[in-house]
Design a protein that fits this description.
The protein folds into three domains: 1-30; 31-205 and 325-338 and 377-391, no CATH class; 219-294, Roll (Pdz3 Domain). Helices cover 58% and strands 17% of the residues. The chain contains eleven helices and 14 strands. Helix 3 crosses helix 11 (360-391), helix 6 (174-210) packs antiparallel against helix 9 (306-335) and helix 10 (344-357) runs antiparallel to helix 11. The protein starts with a helix and ends with a helix.
Amino acid sequence: MALTSFLIEYKWVLLFYIIIFSLIYINRKKFDIKGIVALYRTKFGLKFIDKITARYKELIKLIGYIGIGAGYVGLITISVILVKNLFSLLTKPEAEAAVGLIIPGVHIPGSPIFLPFWFGIIALFTVVLIHEFGHGIVAKAHGLKIKSSGFGMFAIFPIAFVEPEEKHLRKQKDTVQYSVFAAGPFFNILTAFLVILILSFIFIPVQGAITNPVGFSISGVQEGFPAEAAGLKGGMIITEINNIPTKDYNAFSEAMKYVKPGEKITVKADNSLFEITTTNSPDDNTKPYLGITGLDNEVRLKNDSPLSRFLFSIFTWFKTLFGWIGVLSLGIGLANLLPLGPVDGGRMLQVSLLKLTKDKEKGNKIWINITIICLFILIINIFLPLLRSIFS
């Protein structure tokens, strides 16, 4: 029965991967397959990189140099987040994960986010493409040879890549190496800010002009917390708290400021009333907590006609896609700045350590030790919440 439910819930996810892995197997002679990585190398996009670089060479170099500073700020930021989250997880059993595994279309226990399948596949590929384009265009601006580009799979994740000549890169000045390594994450972070601007100045104003707010939906409730005990379920739309209309989550959050932990409140959702006794927030014992997740403001069209609903569904699809591209751009950009082995942050750190120690053996030894420590912290951050969710 459990297997049947799993197959029904994830049928499209399974079908997608069956098709992808079948195509890779059929064309296996054209792929470079090493362990869980399958790469299909082409020259696709290289002429475009050459054209852009020839026209904006100095500007691209400048962006790459700015990316060095942003890269180290990101490296420090993501490292501090991991350490703080590790401390919270070890000292507060109810603490939520700040990082986690994300597989499009799959609910992973303990993961702080659920990524819808098709939005996830499209957004992930877009973000990775931008990331690799950043590496390639900055490398080309510094005169480095680009061997190939292409696409493939890293385990179950779709990837794209641009492959500079590694030996040539390692012979460049430190600043050139820094800028090439930092370019991918920096382009992701720039993409995240661009998405925020697009959402803020295009999608949100347009939506406000054609719709009325009616409340906010929840995608789920946390096991063992007040919302679950009161009977709230994922998919419900909350419209009132203590007889006060809440047309969006901001209004609900504002009303919750006057509620204390342990206080009983009445929430209206899907035209039914639910009495909930709040508990202490895992992050701040002085604040109330309900245990609702996946909050999303809900609206209704002012002109509710079949054509309007169709056009609005397309509008909403693109708005959601842009939102996921922004979220994943920031997340993947910062993740790639971890001081961890072969990822961009780790490679930047390696160059710095070799420069500071002026001893290749000593610098690499320190770099390996930092990589091991970072990997250990990352594993605990990811798998401790997962194990707690499974065995709780």
